[in-house]
Amino acid sequence: MPPARHPVTSEPVIRAESLSKSYRRHHQDPGIHGALRAFAHRRTEERLALAPLDLEVAPGEFVGLLGPNGAGKTTVVKLCCGLVRPTAGTVSVLGHEPARRRAEFLQSIAVVFGQKSMLWWDVPTVDSMLVHKAMYALDGPTYRRRVGELTEVLSLSEVLDVPVRRLSLGERMRCELALSLLHSPRLLFADEPTIGLDVTAKQALRGMLARTNEALGTTVVLTSHDMDDVEALCRRILLVSGGHLTFDGDVAGLRARIAPRRLIRAVVENPLRPEDLPAGARLLDPRTIGLEASEEELEDAVASVLALGGLRDLSVQEVDLEAVMARAYSEQAGAGAERGQR
Ligand SMILES: Nc1ncnc2c1ncn2[C@@H]1O[C@H](COP(=O)(O)OP(=O)(O)OP(=O)(O)O)[C@@H](O)[C@H]1O
């Protein structure tokens, strides 16, 4: 029997309106004098972690929540899970106000962390699953059906009965994912789920996340610094920087905005001198030329490289996503500094 999918509804899974969060922090000057002064007069300062945010995420979406360290990603996730309360504005997740932490709400969401384990180390995953069965009050037939579905979707038949400490990191992450999905959440937050995995294990876990989204209809919000995760999985990207949502669109849209140019790479037979190169080109090594061009300039740029003669190899590449993100982050750091000056 195919796994049971969540029903598709038109109501957004997440709806945030002017949602913002500031944290209060105690301020202390450095050194012993600072410590004494802070002891006598406690000074607090407000830190804006999330500027007013409007957002809707529809059922079945696979969204990448991206941004540099300290951008506000975890704050968005914590607000959506009800772990912190908004300073202003509202957030509704699956029709619930998360901060009320109602049982029905907690039954519908799940969080999986690459850096924190939910599994018991000395016992097999199936034992942790039995604890979750009791926690989420799953009846016997529902539990067995769900374990069967997850075993199929996440290829668990060889690992469920093995004590967690004997599993590889990749196998453990598959079990973490299975445990978080046991109660059939409609919304999954995955926080750096591929961190520390080797290339093969990363690809396998990406496949599992994609299947979870496609086969089970689970809406996924992924936080990752790995651009291969993002490129492989996320149909929509939310870019957060300095607490501001600075981009909402797909990978192609982000490329078009940040790095609309392509890189022409040509290898020629004989070494070249810089003065032999067409305008704008550079030598990547004595026989390899690199030349960036926009969509409109592409034909002329390729012709100028061909005119050099003695061509051995030619490729036209998009600027890779890692470089696009690096540019996006540095652009936004500049914009943040400007905002701070205003
Ligand atoms: N409990 C807290 N008290 C005070 N400030 C906080 C608290 N939690 C987060 N912050 C601040 O809010 C800002 C946003 O933090 P957040 O954890 O959301 O960033 P992030 O994008 O998840 O970063 P990372 O990728 O490093 O995990 C940061 O400046 C952080 O120092």
Automatic annotation (TrEMBL):
Compartments, record wording: Cell membrane
Keyword Nucleotide-binding: yes
UniProt keyword Ion transport present: no
Domain of life: Bacteria
Pfam families cross-referenced by the UniProt entry: ABC_tran (PF00005)
Principal subcellular localisation of the protein: membrane
Keyword annotations from UniProtKB, A to Z: Antibiotic resistance, ATP-binding, Nucleotide-binding, Transport
Alphabetical list of SMART domains matching this protein: AAA (SM00382)
InterPro entries for the chain: AAA+_ATPase, ABC_transporter-like_ATP-bd, ABC_transporter_ATP-binding, P-loop_NTPase
SUPFAM superfamilies: P-loop containing nucleoside triphosphate hydrolases (SSF52540)
PROSITE patterns named in the record: ABC_TRANSPORTER_2
Topology versus the membrane: Peripheral membrane protein
Domain ABC transporter: start-end pairs: 14-267
GO molecular function, one term: ATP binding
PANTHER family, per the entry: ABC TRANSPORTER ATP-BINDING PROTEIN (PTHR42711), ABC TRANSPORTER RELATED (PTHR42711:SF4)
Name of the molecule in the record: ABC-2 type transport system ATP-binding protein
Annotated source species: Brachybacterium sacelli
